[in-house]
Amino acid sequence: MEQSIAPTGYGTSVDTPTAHDNNNTPTSKIWQVITASSVGTVIEWYDFYIFGSLTPIISTLFFPKTNPVAALLSTLALFATGFVVRPFGAIVFGRLGDMVGRKYTFLLTLLLMGGSTFAIGLVPTYASIGLAAPFILLILRLVQGLALGGEYGGATTYVAEHSPDKQRGYYTSFIQTTATVGLFVSIAVIVGTRKIVGEDVFKEWGWRIPFLISFFLVIASYYIRRKLHESPLFAQAKAKGTTSTNPLRDSFVKPENRRLVILALLGATMGQGVVWYTGQFYAYFFLQTVLKVDLVPASTILCIALLLATPFFIYFGALSDRIGRKRIIMMGLLCGALFTIPIFYGMKQFAGPLTEKTSAIPATVDAAGKAVDAVPAVMVAAEPNLVALTVLVFCLVLFVTMAYGPIAAYLVELFPTKVRYTSLSLPYHIGNGIFGGLVPLISTSLVAYASSQPDGFLKEHSIYFGLVYPVVIAAICFLYGSAKMKDIRNVKLMDEQPAAGA
User: Fold this and answer.
1) Which residue of 1, 205, 473, 493 has the smallest Cβ count within 10 Å?
2) Alpha-carbon distance 440 to 181, whole Å?
3) Half-sphere exposure for 436 (CA within 13 Å, toward CB)
4) How many other C-beta atoms are found inside a 10 Å radius of the C-beta of residue 102?
């Protein structure tokens, strides 16, 4: 067996390769790598999701108030642009990571994400600068998406290339928890800030605080990551001169590697993406905007469900080391396809009837004779069954852990070292960024379409019509993956070995 090469130490300033076998890496070093990688990735997900969590408020501040539905859809579209651009970030930073190195690439993505998030907290509203406000938001969301497109591949590859072959699913599953933890932290910070400053102040300017906090989190994470050195397998490839001179060509032009990229997308990441965003983000959005559950109880439901389900990322990642990645991922996709719609029907039942929080105010004229627009009544779920709703959301997140927990190890083992960063990043971010990230926008648009139809079955069940999109995608991915994917695990991550999926 050919030995890998790793840095001489984790506290020096020079990345000098020496003989090293990743199967004999000290556990303390692996945990140092996981901690530094995970902390940074959690912060990047935190940065990315506070925008989505604050969509209802941002839509009222950065777009004209004359059409609330159009403003909400426009804000969701801005949120979606950050996902759509992620594959481009995967290409840009994947190429950089396969040519220059994993460590320096994910240091750069961390700074880009943190800087753009901090800047969002400073952007003036529509009332102050007009259409320039949503335009600036768009630019910053694009930067966020590009940065996130490079972050996941770097962190996952970095951890995997340090991990023993027979525990790769277990160790990489900690990176898989970061998206959920980042979402949890974003919700906790938002709810905590709202409690401290009060609801009125929060809607006026307090919503900026979660964005500004990002600056301090990023600086701390950057300091931790700077102490790391290059991954042992990449250091070996660079020392031997076997790194790719053109990762894009080697990843997407060469037929054998291109086929694996397509397999990863259609057989795993596409379905995993829609299951993830339906179970964790759209469920949260559905609770607030459709079922009218207030922000605090909706956040409590999701946070408890996330806390209860997060250990299952680790469980299924470790289980995949013993029984293979494929069957666990496919089970998560199948559960998402079969049970998502029934669970959302159950959420509607347990949310309870709506009642008026504030009464409608008719249009009038003020003392100066200026017309004052009518204000519609604000409806809320009066007595939601929080326990039952938490159980249902937990089930959705459990499907996520099955589809997502083992997928990092599967993707890493699918591609050779010299193009691993680029090759795994693109299908992952197309599946998650486009197919998954567009779930809120596409589903909300489908609901709006169904509700505008004449009276009948479609209109009566319009609030569930948006679920057709993620369910169909998950079902297609399950069928393709079941037929085409190989159940691989614990392969040696060496360029000399044939591709695991070949």
Assistant:
1) 1
2) 20
3) 31
4) 27
Task: Give the Cα separation of 107 and 406 in Å (integer).
Answer: 25
Residue-level pLDDT at 366: 62
User: Mean pLDDT, consecutive 10-residue segments, the chain of 502 residues?
Assistant: 34 42 73 82 75 78 73 73 81 78 77 86 88 87 83 80 87 87 84 88 90 84 75 70 73 85 93 92 87 86 91 95 94 97 94 69 64 62 88 96 93 84 86 85 87 84 92 96 86 56 50
Q: What is the pLDDT of residue 243?
A: 66
Give me the helix-helix angle, 208-226 and 27-53, nearest 10°.
Answer: 160
Q: Do 473 and 274 meet the contact criterion of CB atoms below 8 Å apart?
A: yes
So what's the pLDDT on residue 310?
A: 92
Rounded to the nearest 10 degrees, the angle between the axes of helix 86-99 and helix 68-84 is 20
For the four alpha carbons of 289, 293, 297 and 302, in that order, the dihedral sign comes to: negative
Distance of alpha carbon 393 from alpha carbon 465, whole angstroms? 18
DSSP 17-45: EEEE-GGG--HHHHHHHHHHHHHHHHHHH
Cα distance between the two ends of the chain: 21
Place of tokens 């139809």: 453
pLDDT of residue 8: 32
pLDDT at 113: 81
Phi, psi of 356 (to 5 degrees): -75, 125
DSSP annotation of 254: S
Alpha helices in 265-353 (DSSP H): 270-276, 283-289, 295-309, 311-323, 326-351
- Picking from 262, 286, 257, 476, the residue whose alpha carbon sits closest to that of residue 392 is 286
DSSP label at 274?
Answer: H
CB 121 within 8 A of CB 209: yes
Q: Which residues are within 8 A (CB) of 199 and not within 5 positions of it... i.e. 6 or more apart?
A: none
Q: What is the pLDDT of residue 19?
A: 47
Asked if residue 62 lies in contact with residue 133, where contact means CB atoms within 8 angstroms, the answer is: yes
Other residues' Cβ atoms within 10 Å of the Cβ of residue 461: 14
Mapped onto helix, strand or coil, the DSSP state of residue 358 is strand
Find, among 10, 8, 461, the residue nearest to 224 by Cα: 10
Contact criterion met (CB below 8 Å) for 43 and 211: no
pLDDT, residue 397, reads: 95
In sequence order, what are the beta bridge partners of 17? 7
Distance CA 336, CA 201 (A): 39
What is the rounded distance in angstroms from the CA atom of residue 107 to the CA atom of residue 397?
30
Q: Which amino acid is at 160?
A: A
Rounded distance between C-alpha atoms, residue 22 and residue 459, angstroms? 57
- Nearest Cα neighbor of 34 from 10, 2, 4, 8 is 10
Distance of CA 38 to the CA centre of its chain: 14
Q: What is the pLDDT of residue 399?
A: 97
Would you state the pLDDT for residue 253? 82
Q: Is the pTM of this model over 0.85?
A: no
